[in-house]
Amino acid sequence: MALIRPCADLRNNYNEISKLCHETNQPIYITKNGYNDLVVLSNEAYEKQEEERIEKLVAEYFDKKFSDFESFKKDLYEKIEHGLKNIEEGRCIPAKDFFKEMEEKYKINE
Question: Which of 4, 43, 45, 93 falls between 20 and 30 A from 52, CA-CA?
Fold first, then answer.
């Protein structure tokens, strides 16, 4: 059964809502003027939900790209060999330089 609370409860009864989220591991729907406005989850429930979503996406990608585990290993070995060849031929940069370049390009850690 869905847990529905008015937005005033979020402000006035935060501890109660937090306790409900942790005890039930279910979303609590917060309404504003009688309409759904927010959904609140405990951090643990959110992390579990995200982990399951990511696992599903990875499995779907794997199933589309590879017919079996042997084809996955073959693809991986080919990529490793390609990378090692690039290193031998000097077509690479140190990881330290790569990360610095990415931080500057995408304005990370500013």
Answer: 4
